[in-house]
Write a structure and sequence with these properties.
The complex is a heterodimer. Chain A is mainly alpha-helical. Chain A has one domain: Orthogonal Bundle (Arc Repressor Mutant, subunit A). Helix content of chain A is 38%, strand content 5%. Chain A is built from 4 helices and 2 strands. The longest helix of chain A has 13 residues. Chain A is elongated and about 50 Å long. In chain B, the strands form 5 sheets. In chain B, strands 1, 2, 3, 4, 5, 6 and 19 form a 7-stranded mixed beta sheet that branches. Chain B has a 5-stranded parallel beta sheet with strand order 8-15-9-10-11. Chain B is built from 9 helices and 19 strands. Chain B is an alpha/beta fold. Chain B has 2 domains: 223 residues, FAD/NAD(P)-binding domain; 127 residues, 3-Layer(bba) Sandwich (FAD/NAD(P)-binding domain). Classes of the chains: A mainly alpha, B alpha/beta. The interface between A and B is medium-sized, with 33 and 37 residues.
Chain lengths: 91, 361
Protein backbone atom coordinates (compact mmCIF):
# COMPACT_ATOMS: atom_id res chain seq x y z
CA UNK A 1 0.00 0.00 0.00
CA UNK A 2 1.78 3.10 -1.15
CA UNK A 3 -0.52 6.07 -0.75
CA UNK A 4 2.29 8.52 -1.41
CA UNK A 5 2.29 7.39 -5.05
CA UNK A 6 -1.43 7.98 -5.51
CA UNK A 7 -2.27 11.45 -6.78
CA UNK A 8 -5.65 12.63 -5.55
CA UNK A 9 -5.55 16.27 -6.71
CA UNK A 10 -3.47 16.50 -9.85
CA UNK A 11 -3.66 20.28 -10.19
CA UNK A 12 -2.00 20.84 -6.81
CA UNK A 13 -0.03 17.56 -6.77
CA UNK A 14 -1.61 16.26 -3.56
CA UNK A 15 -1.26 12.57 -2.67
CA UNK A 16 -3.66 10.24 -0.92
CA UNK A 17 -1.12 9.95 1.90
CA UNK A 18 -1.27 13.70 2.56
CA UNK A 19 -5.07 13.55 2.52
CA UNK A 20 -5.14 10.68 5.01
CA UNK A 21 -2.70 12.56 7.26
CA UNK A 22 -5.27 15.35 7.40
CA UNK A 23 -7.99 12.87 8.37
CA UNK A 24 -5.79 11.59 11.20
CA UNK A 25 -5.21 15.16 12.37
CA UNK A 26 -8.97 15.58 12.64
CA UNK A 27 -9.77 17.44 9.41
CA UNK A 28 -12.56 15.62 7.61
CA UNK A 29 -14.27 18.23 5.44
CA UNK A 30 -13.27 19.38 1.98
CA UNK A 31 -13.31 23.04 3.07
CA UNK A 32 -10.91 22.45 5.98
CA UNK A 33 -8.53 20.32 3.97
CA UNK A 34 -8.60 22.82 1.09
CA UNK A 35 -7.07 25.40 3.42
CA UNK A 36 -4.27 23.01 4.33
CA UNK A 37 -3.45 21.18 1.09
CA UNK A 38 -4.92 23.52 -1.58
CA UNK A 39 -7.08 20.68 -2.94
CA UNK A 40 -9.52 21.97 -5.51
CA UNK A 41 -7.72 25.31 -5.87
CA UNK A 42 -5.89 24.62 -9.13
CA UNK A 43 -6.89 25.08 -12.77
CA UNK A 44 -9.75 22.56 -12.71
CA UNK A 45 -11.21 24.05 -9.50
CA UNK A 46 -12.04 20.69 -7.96
CA UNK A 47 -13.83 19.19 -10.95
CA UNK A 48 -11.46 16.19 -10.89
CA UNK A 49 -10.64 15.75 -7.20
CA UNK A 50 -13.99 16.61 -5.59
CA UNK A 51 -15.56 13.20 -6.27
CA UNK A 52 -12.40 11.32 -5.29
CA UNK A 53 -11.97 13.21 -2.02
CA UNK A 54 -15.65 12.96 -1.19
CA UNK A 55 -15.33 9.18 -1.55
CA UNK A 56 -12.20 9.01 0.64
CA UNK A 57 -13.90 11.08 3.37
CA UNK A 58 -16.96 8.80 3.17
CA UNK A 59 -14.78 5.70 3.57
CA UNK A 60 -12.86 7.25 6.49
CA UNK A 61 -16.01 8.38 8.31
CA UNK A 62 -17.92 5.21 7.30
CA UNK A 63 -20.78 7.33 5.97
CA UNK A 64 -22.66 7.25 2.65
CA UNK A 65 -20.95 9.25 -0.13
CA UNK A 66 -24.01 11.42 -0.82
CA UNK A 67 -23.98 12.67 2.80
CA UNK A 68 -20.47 14.13 2.43
CA UNK A 69 -20.43 17.76 1.26
CA UNK A 70 -17.83 18.81 -1.32
CA UNK A 71 -16.33 22.22 -1.79
CA UNK A 72 -18.11 25.54 -1.92
CA UNK A 73 -18.07 26.67 -5.54
CA UNK A 74 -17.14 30.29 -6.08
CA UNK A 75 -16.35 32.44 -9.09
CA UNK A 76 -14.23 32.01 -11.16
CA UNK A 77 -14.32 28.60 -12.79
CA UNK A 78 -10.87 28.92 -14.32
CA UNK A 79 -7.78 31.07 -14.22
CA UNK A 80 -8.24 34.70 -15.29
CA UNK A 81 -5.36 37.19 -15.50
CA UNK A 82 -6.00 40.03 -13.04
CA UNK A 83 -4.72 42.58 -15.56
CA UNK A 84 -7.48 41.51 -17.94
CA UNK A 85 -10.14 42.15 -15.30
CA UNK A 86 -8.55 45.49 -14.39
CA UNK A 87 -8.45 46.55 -18.03
CA UNK A 88 -11.97 45.49 -18.94
CA UNK A 89 -13.86 48.57 -20.06
CA UNK A 90 -17.27 47.16 -19.31
CA UNK A 91 -20.07 49.41 -18.03
CA UNK B 1 -22.56 45.22 -19.32
CA UNK B 2 -24.01 43.64 -22.43
CA UNK B 3 -27.72 43.00 -22.00
CA UNK B 4 -29.21 40.01 -23.78
CA UNK B 5 -32.54 38.21 -23.94
CA UNK B 6 -31.49 34.55 -23.76
CA UNK B 7 -27.97 33.32 -23.13
CA UNK B 8 -27.12 29.66 -23.65
CA UNK B 9 -23.92 28.44 -22.02
CA UNK B 10 -22.44 25.52 -23.93
CA UNK B 11 -22.54 24.72 -27.65
CA UNK B 12 -22.75 20.93 -27.46
CA UNK B 13 -25.75 18.79 -28.43
CA UNK B 14 -27.93 20.21 -25.64
CA UNK B 15 -27.03 23.88 -26.16
CA UNK B 16 -27.34 23.72 -29.95
CA UNK B 17 -30.73 22.01 -29.73
CA UNK B 18 -31.92 24.56 -27.17
CA UNK B 19 -30.76 27.40 -29.43
CA UNK B 20 -32.69 26.07 -32.41
CA UNK B 21 -36.01 25.80 -30.60
CA UNK B 22 -35.60 29.17 -28.87
CA UNK B 23 -34.81 30.79 -32.24
CA UNK B 24 -37.83 29.12 -33.84
CA UNK B 25 -39.89 30.62 -31.02
CA UNK B 26 -38.70 34.11 -31.92
CA UNK B 27 -36.07 34.72 -29.21
CA UNK B 28 -32.76 36.44 -29.71
CA UNK B 29 -30.06 34.02 -28.62
CA UNK B 30 -26.46 34.42 -27.46
CA UNK B 31 -24.64 31.08 -27.52
CA UNK B 32 -21.35 30.94 -25.62
CA UNK B 33 -18.88 28.10 -26.18
CA UNK B 34 -15.53 27.52 -24.49
CA UNK B 35 -13.95 25.57 -27.35
CA UNK B 36 -12.87 26.80 -30.78
CA UNK B 37 -15.75 25.04 -32.47
CA UNK B 38 -19.38 24.29 -31.73
CA UNK B 39 -20.52 20.69 -31.38
CA UNK B 40 -19.15 19.70 -27.97
CA UNK B 41 -18.18 16.06 -27.68
CA UNK B 42 -20.04 15.22 -30.90
CA UNK B 43 -17.09 16.44 -32.98
CA UNK B 44 -14.90 13.59 -31.74
CA UNK B 45 -17.54 10.88 -32.08
CA UNK B 46 -16.88 9.06 -35.31
CA UNK B 47 -19.35 6.25 -34.60
CA UNK B 48 -22.96 6.03 -35.68
CA UNK B 49 -25.55 6.79 -33.05
CA UNK B 50 -28.20 4.49 -31.63
CA UNK B 51 -31.49 5.69 -30.26
CA UNK B 52 -34.32 7.04 -32.31
CA UNK B 53 -34.58 8.51 -35.78
CA UNK B 54 -35.57 11.94 -34.41
CA UNK B 55 -32.19 12.09 -32.62
CA UNK B 56 -30.24 11.08 -35.72
CA UNK B 57 -29.83 7.35 -35.09
CA UNK B 58 -27.48 5.77 -37.67
CA UNK B 59 -25.71 9.12 -38.18
CA UNK B 60 -22.12 9.67 -37.01
CA UNK B 61 -21.66 12.04 -34.06
CA UNK B 62 -19.50 14.44 -36.03
CA UNK B 63 -22.16 14.63 -38.76
CA UNK B 64 -24.84 15.30 -36.15
CA UNK B 65 -22.80 18.30 -34.98
CA UNK B 66 -22.73 19.60 -38.56
CA UNK B 67 -26.51 19.19 -38.86
CA UNK B 68 -27.20 20.95 -35.54
CA UNK B 69 -24.93 23.87 -36.47
CA UNK B 70 -26.43 24.08 -39.98
CA UNK B 71 -29.94 24.17 -38.45
CA UNK B 72 -29.10 27.54 -36.86
CA UNK B 73 -28.12 29.23 -40.12
CA UNK B 74 -31.56 30.63 -41.05
CA UNK B 75 -31.57 32.68 -37.83
CA UNK B 76 -28.28 34.59 -38.20
CA UNK B 77 -30.01 37.94 -37.62
CA UNK B 78 -31.09 36.94 -34.10
CA UNK B 79 -28.19 34.68 -33.21
CA UNK B 80 -24.89 35.73 -31.65
CA UNK B 81 -22.25 33.01 -31.30
CA UNK B 82 -19.16 33.42 -29.15
CA UNK B 83 -16.57 30.65 -29.42
CA UNK B 84 -13.28 30.48 -27.54
CA UNK B 85 -15.24 32.17 -24.77
CA UNK B 86 -15.54 30.71 -21.29
CA UNK B 87 -18.28 31.66 -18.89
CA UNK B 88 -16.17 31.88 -15.73
CA UNK B 89 -18.85 33.10 -13.35
CA UNK B 90 -22.60 33.27 -12.89
CA UNK B 91 -24.22 35.47 -10.26
CA UNK B 92 -27.70 35.53 -8.66
CA UNK B 93 -28.49 38.79 -10.51
CA UNK B 94 -28.28 37.03 -13.92
CA UNK B 95 -24.84 38.42 -14.68
CA UNK B 96 -22.37 36.15 -16.46
CA UNK B 97 -18.65 36.87 -16.66
CA UNK B 98 -17.13 35.74 -19.92
CA UNK B 99 -13.41 35.36 -20.56
CA UNK B 100 -12.35 35.28 -24.18
CA UNK B 101 -8.72 35.73 -25.14
CA UNK B 102 -7.73 38.65 -22.93
CA UNK B 103 -11.22 40.14 -22.87
CA UNK B 104 -13.18 39.93 -19.65
CA UNK B 105 -16.78 40.77 -20.51
CA UNK B 106 -19.96 40.92 -18.44
CA UNK B 107 -23.33 39.90 -19.81
CA UNK B 108 -26.74 40.20 -18.24
CA UNK B 109 -29.56 37.98 -19.44
CA UNK B 110 -33.32 37.82 -19.03
CA UNK B 111 -33.10 34.04 -19.22
CA UNK B 112 -30.19 31.59 -19.10
CA UNK B 113 -29.89 28.00 -20.28
CA UNK B 114 -26.98 26.10 -18.75
CA UNK B 115 -25.78 23.30 -21.04
CA UNK B 116 -22.19 22.96 -19.83
CA UNK B 117 -22.03 19.19 -20.09
CA UNK B 118 -19.69 17.08 -18.02
CA UNK B 119 -16.08 16.25 -17.33
CA UNK B 120 -14.38 12.91 -16.92
CA UNK B 121 -13.98 11.09 -13.63
CA UNK B 122 -10.53 9.99 -12.62
CA UNK B 123 -9.21 7.03 -10.61
CA UNK B 124 -6.90 6.71 -7.64
CA UNK B 125 -4.19 4.08 -7.99
CA UNK B 126 -0.43 3.91 -7.52
CA UNK B 127 1.53 6.06 -9.97
CA UNK B 128 -1.62 7.45 -11.57
CA UNK B 129 0.39 10.44 -12.81
CA UNK B 130 2.70 8.67 -15.26
CA UNK B 131 2.59 10.03 -18.83
CA UNK B 132 0.53 7.66 -20.95
CA UNK B 133 -2.45 7.62 -18.61
CA UNK B 134 -5.35 9.32 -20.32
CA UNK B 135 -9.06 9.89 -19.98
CA UNK B 136 -11.19 8.44 -22.76
CA UNK B 137 -12.08 11.94 -23.91
CA UNK B 138 -8.42 12.84 -24.37
CA UNK B 139 -7.86 9.66 -26.36
CA UNK B 140 -10.79 10.54 -28.63
CA UNK B 141 -9.52 14.08 -29.05
CA UNK B 142 -6.01 12.94 -29.97
CA UNK B 143 -7.11 10.14 -32.24
CA UNK B 144 -10.32 11.34 -33.86
CA UNK B 145 -9.78 15.10 -33.97
CA UNK B 146 -6.04 15.41 -34.44
CA UNK B 147 -5.12 12.04 -35.94
CA UNK B 148 -2.52 11.27 -33.29
CA UNK B 149 -2.04 7.71 -32.08
CA UNK B 150 -2.14 7.76 -28.26
CA UNK B 151 -0.07 4.58 -27.89
CA UNK B 152 0.60 1.17 -29.40
CA UNK B 153 -0.69 -1.08 -26.64
CA UNK B 154 -3.62 0.22 -24.63
CA UNK B 155 -5.45 -1.05 -21.57
CA UNK B 156 -8.96 0.36 -21.18
CA UNK B 157 -10.47 0.85 -17.72
CA UNK B 158 -14.26 0.85 -17.82
CA UNK B 159 -16.71 -1.06 -20.02
CA UNK B 160 -19.43 1.52 -20.34
CA UNK B 161 -20.41 2.56 -23.86
CA UNK B 162 -17.61 5.13 -24.04
CA UNK B 163 -14.95 2.59 -22.99
CA UNK B 164 -16.26 0.01 -25.45
CA UNK B 165 -16.63 2.41 -28.38
CA UNK B 166 -13.25 4.05 -27.83
CA UNK B 167 -11.63 0.59 -27.61
CA UNK B 168 -13.12 -0.28 -30.98
CA UNK B 169 -11.99 3.03 -32.46
CA UNK B 170 -8.47 2.38 -31.15
CA UNK B 171 -8.45 -0.97 -32.95
CA UNK B 172 -9.69 0.73 -36.12
CA UNK B 173 -6.75 3.13 -35.80
CA UNK B 174 -4.32 0.21 -35.62
CA UNK B 175 -3.78 0.25 -31.85
CA UNK B 176 -3.57 -3.01 -29.93
CA UNK B 177 -6.20 -3.06 -27.15
CA UNK B 178 -4.78 -5.55 -24.64
CA UNK B 179 -7.79 -5.71 -22.32
CA UNK B 180 -10.86 -3.88 -21.08
CA UNK B 181 -11.10 -3.85 -17.27
CA UNK B 182 -14.45 -3.54 -15.50
CA UNK B 183 -14.72 -3.27 -11.71
CA UNK B 184 -18.36 -4.41 -11.66
CA UNK B 185 -19.41 -8.01 -12.25
CA UNK B 186 -20.97 -7.21 -15.61
CA UNK B 187 -20.27 -5.18 -18.74
CA UNK B 188 -21.62 -1.65 -18.41
CA UNK B 189 -22.37 -0.76 -22.04
CA UNK B 190 -24.47 -2.25 -24.81
CA UNK B 191 -23.64 -5.87 -25.58
CA UNK B 192 -23.54 -5.09 -29.31
CA UNK B 193 -20.45 -2.91 -28.69
CA UNK B 194 -18.87 -5.47 -26.32
CA UNK B 195 -19.46 -8.31 -28.79
CA UNK B 196 -17.54 -6.48 -31.51
CA UNK B 197 -14.50 -6.32 -29.21
CA UNK B 198 -14.77 -9.91 -28.05
CA UNK B 199 -15.03 -11.10 -31.67
CA UNK B 200 -11.75 -9.27 -32.32
CA UNK B 201 -10.15 -11.13 -29.42
CA UNK B 202 -10.12 -8.36 -26.79
CA UNK B 203 -10.62 -9.82 -23.31
CA UNK B 204 -13.17 -7.95 -21.17
CA UNK B 205 -12.19 -8.65 -17.57
CA UNK B 206 -15.07 -8.07 -15.15
CA UNK B 207 -14.53 -7.75 -11.37
CA UNK B 208 -11.12 -6.33 -12.25
CA UNK B 209 -9.52 -2.94 -11.85
CA UNK B 210 -6.13 -1.26 -12.17
CA UNK B 211 -3.97 -1.55 -9.07
CA UNK B 212 -0.81 0.31 -10.06
CA UNK B 213 1.06 1.69 -13.02
CA UNK B 214 4.76 1.19 -13.70
CA UNK B 215 7.18 3.38 -15.59
CA UNK B 216 9.38 6.38 -15.00
CA UNK B 217 9.23 8.75 -17.95
CA UNK B 218 6.35 6.90 -19.59
CA UNK B 219 3.93 4.09 -18.89
CA UNK B 220 5.46 0.62 -19.32
CA UNK B 221 2.97 -1.74 -17.68
CA UNK B 222 0.02 -1.91 -15.31
CA UNK B 223 -0.90 -4.33 -12.54
CA UNK B 224 -4.53 -5.37 -12.39
CA UNK B 225 -6.35 -6.85 -9.42
CA UNK B 226 -9.61 -8.72 -9.10
CA UNK B 227 -12.43 -7.44 -6.91
CA UNK B 228 -15.12 -9.38 -5.09
CA UNK B 229 -18.76 -8.28 -5.34
CA UNK B 230 -18.24 -5.86 -2.43
CA UNK B 231 -15.46 -4.05 -4.35
CA UNK B 232 -12.81 -5.57 -2.06
CA UNK B 233 -9.49 -6.52 -3.62
CA UNK B 234 -8.83 -10.27 -3.79
CA UNK B 235 -5.34 -10.95 -2.52
CA UNK B 236 -3.02 -12.81 -4.84
CA UNK B 237 -5.10 -12.00 -7.92
CA UNK B 238 -2.71 -9.41 -9.34
CA UNK B 239 -1.63 -9.70 -12.94
CA UNK B 240 0.63 -7.56 -15.08
CA UNK B 241 -0.16 -6.26 -18.55
CA UNK B 242 2.49 -4.53 -20.65
CA UNK B 243 1.16 -1.35 -22.27
CA UNK B 244 2.22 2.18 -23.14
CA UNK B 245 -1.18 3.78 -22.63
CA UNK B 246 -3.94 3.38 -20.09
CA UNK B 247 -7.33 4.84 -20.94
CA UNK B 248 -9.64 5.70 -18.06
CA UNK B 249 -13.32 5.62 -18.87
CA UNK B 250 -15.09 5.38 -15.55
CA UNK B 251 -17.89 7.82 -16.03
CA UNK B 252 -18.58 11.50 -16.16
CA UNK B 253 -19.43 14.14 -13.65
CA UNK B 254 -21.75 17.13 -14.38
CA UNK B 255 -20.07 20.55 -14.81
CA UNK B 256 -22.29 22.11 -12.17
CA UNK B 257 -20.05 24.98 -11.01
CA UNK B 258 -21.91 27.89 -12.61
CA UNK B 259 -25.25 26.76 -11.20
CA UNK B 260 -23.75 26.05 -7.77
CA UNK B 261 -22.02 29.42 -7.48
CA UNK B 262 -25.18 31.30 -8.50
CA UNK B 263 -26.96 29.69 -5.58
CA UNK B 264 -29.19 27.31 -7.54
CA UNK B 265 -30.48 24.49 -5.35
CA UNK B 266 -28.39 21.38 -6.03
CA UNK B 267 -28.66 17.71 -5.14
CA UNK B 268 -26.07 14.92 -5.18
CA UNK B 269 -27.27 11.89 -7.13
CA UNK B 270 -24.71 9.13 -7.54
CA UNK B 271 -26.59 7.47 -10.43
CA UNK B 272 -26.52 10.72 -12.40
CA UNK B 273 -22.81 11.35 -11.87
CA UNK B 274 -22.74 13.79 -8.95
CA UNK B 275 -24.09 17.28 -8.26
CA UNK B 276 -27.09 18.24 -10.38
CA UNK B 277 -29.52 21.16 -10.20
CA UNK B 278 -32.99 20.51 -8.86
CA UNK B 279 -35.43 21.43 -11.57
CA UNK B 280 -39.17 21.39 -12.09
CA UNK B 281 -41.02 19.53 -14.83
CA UNK B 282 -40.42 22.48 -17.17
CA UNK B 283 -36.62 22.21 -16.75
CA UNK B 284 -36.48 25.43 -14.77
CA UNK B 285 -34.04 25.42 -11.85
CA UNK B 286 -34.72 26.98 -8.44
CA UNK B 287 -33.59 30.29 -9.98
CA UNK B 288 -36.47 31.69 -12.09
CA UNK B 289 -35.72 31.87 -15.85
CA UNK B 290 -32.63 29.69 -15.44
CA UNK B 291 -32.90 26.36 -17.21
CA UNK B 292 -30.53 23.40 -17.42
CA UNK B 293 -30.27 20.60 -19.95
CA UNK B 294 -27.95 17.81 -21.08
CA UNK B 295 -25.26 16.14 -19.00
CA UNK B 296 -25.12 19.00 -16.46
CA UNK B 297 -28.54 17.80 -15.24
CA UNK B 298 -27.35 14.20 -14.96
CA UNK B 299 -25.17 12.00 -17.15
CA UNK B 300 -27.05 10.40 -20.02
CA UNK B 301 -26.34 10.12 -23.73
CA UNK B 302 -26.13 12.75 -26.45
CA UNK B 303 -29.57 11.68 -27.73
CA UNK B 304 -31.29 12.63 -24.48
CA UNK B 305 -29.14 15.77 -24.23
CA UNK B 306 -30.56 16.93 -27.57
CA UNK B 307 -34.16 16.32 -26.47
CA UNK B 308 -33.54 18.01 -23.12
CA UNK B 309 -32.05 20.94 -25.00
CA UNK B 310 -35.20 21.25 -27.11
CA UNK B 311 -37.31 21.21 -23.95
CA UNK B 312 -35.15 23.87 -22.27
CA UNK B 313 -35.27 26.04 -25.41
CA UNK B 314 -39.04 25.67 -25.62
CA UNK B 315 -39.58 26.53 -21.95
CA UNK B 316 -37.07 29.39 -21.79
CA UNK B 317 -38.68 31.03 -24.82
CA UNK B 318 -42.14 30.71 -23.27
CA UNK B 319 -40.86 32.24 -20.02
CA UNK B 320 -39.67 35.25 -22.04
CA UNK B 321 -43.16 35.72 -23.44
CA UNK B 322 -42.31 34.13 -26.80
CA UNK B 323 -44.04 30.75 -26.78
CA UNK B 324 -43.26 28.52 -29.76
CA UNK B 325 -46.15 28.52 -32.31
CA UNK B 326 -46.48 24.76 -31.75
CA UNK B 327 -45.74 24.89 -28.03
CA UNK B 328 -48.23 22.28 -26.83
CA UNK B 329 -47.56 19.66 -29.49
CA UNK B 330 -43.78 20.15 -29.25
CA UNK B 331 -43.84 19.80 -25.48
CA UNK B 332 -45.79 16.56 -25.69
CA UNK B 333 -43.52 15.25 -28.47
CA UNK B 334 -40.26 16.02 -26.65
CA UNK B 335 -41.30 14.49 -23.34
CA UNK B 336 -42.53 11.44 -25.19
CA UNK B 337 -39.13 11.12 -26.95
CA UNK B 338 -37.31 11.48 -23.66
CA UNK B 339 -39.36 8.76 -22.01
CA UNK B 340 -38.69 6.46 -24.97
CA UNK B 341 -34.93 7.04 -24.84
CA UNK B 342 -34.86 6.18 -21.14
CA UNK B 343 -36.81 2.95 -21.49
CA UNK B 344 -35.38 -0.53 -21.30
CA UNK B 345 -32.62 -2.07 -19.19
CA UNK B 346 -30.00 0.52 -20.18
CA UNK B 347 -32.15 3.30 -18.74
CA UNK B 348 -32.55 1.69 -15.30
CA UNK B 349 -29.76 3.67 -13.66
CA UNK B 350 -30.98 6.96 -15.15
CA UNK B 351 -34.58 6.29 -14.10
CA UNK B 352 -33.42 5.41 -10.57
CA UNK B 353 -31.39 8.63 -10.39
CA UNK B 354 -34.24 10.78 -11.69
CA UNK B 355 -36.56 9.20 -9.16
CA UNK B 356 -34.20 10.19 -6.33
CA UNK B 357 -34.02 13.70 -7.72
CA UNK B 358 -37.83 13.73 -7.64
CA UNK B 359 -38.07 14.06 -11.40
CA UNK B 360 -39.46 10.77 -12.63
CA UNK B 361 -41.94 11.46 -15.39
Amino acid sequence: MSDKDKIICRCEDVTLEELKDCFKAGYTTFEEIKRILRIGMGPCQGQTCANLIQREIAIYLKQPVESIPTQKTRPLTSGVILKDIAESHDE
Amino acid sequence: MRERDLIIVGGGPAGLSAAKVALESGCSVTLIERANDLGGQLVKQTHKFFGSKSEYAKTRGIDIATILIHDLEPYQDRLEILTNATVVAMYPDYVLSVYSGHDYIKFKANAIIIATGASEKFLVFENNDIPGIYGAGAIQTLMNQYGIMPGRDVVMVGSGNIGLIVSYQLIQAGVNVKAVLEAADHIGGYLVHASKLVRLGVPILTNTTVKRAHGTTKLEKVDTIQLDNHWKEIEGSEETIECDALCISVGLSPLHQLLSMAGVEMIYINELGGMIPKKDEDYETSMPHVYACGDVTGIEEASSAMVEGKIAGLMAAASLGKPHPEFDSRKEEYFHQLTNLRQGPCGIKIRKGLEQAGEMI
